[in-house]
Specification:
Largest sheet: 8 strands, mixed
Number of strands: 8
Order of helices and strands: EEEEHHEEEEHH
Helix content: 25-40%
Distance between the termini: 23 Å
Radius of gyration: 13 Å
Structural class: alpha+beta
Low-confidence stretches: 9-17
Bound molecules: zinc ion
Mean pLDDT: 88
Shape: globular
Strand content: 25-35%
Number of helices: 4
Length: 125
């Protein structure tokens, strides 16, 4: 399983065998309208608007968590993408456009890596 984590100010990666933990994760039941708009904007920005379908958007599982952390070295992350279409947002970052768009770039790429130039260009981080 591939997991990608968005750090505070720094972008980092972690594989599932890494010691990243998600605390009090729960599904986001009322998906904000902003997420749908940001999804379409990211698809457009990445040059794949035809893939920004309502069906694909509906396939994304959104979660909120109190904390995303690495107990081993006390690092914290603000968001996490897990294949195939799972996005976990730290609760206080759930309406941050850059954080949500960053995870949406991962979802469009189906990749936990950070190939240039998509993240900077389409999410700002
Ligand atoms: Zn990332």
């Amino acid at each position: 399983m591939v997991r990608a984590l968005l750090m505070l100010g720094v972008v980092a990666l972690a594989a599932c065998e890494s010691p990243w933990n998600v605390e009090m994760e729960s599904p986001i039941r009322d998906i904000p309208e902003d997420y749908h708009r940001w999804f379409q904007e990211v698809g457009m920005c990445m040059g794949v608007p035809e893939r920004a379908t309502d069906a694909r958007f509906a396939g994304i599982q959104w979660y909120s968590a109190i904390a995303i952390y690495n107990a081993q070295d006390d690092q914290h992350a603000v968001a996490l993408w897990t294949e195939p279409h799972r996005i976990t947002l730290r609760h206080d970052q759930a309406h941050d456009e850059r954080v949500v768009k960053h995870e949406l770039v991962h979802d469009f790429l189906s990749d936990g890596n950070h190939p240039a130039p998509y993240f900077k260009r389409c999410a700002g981080v």
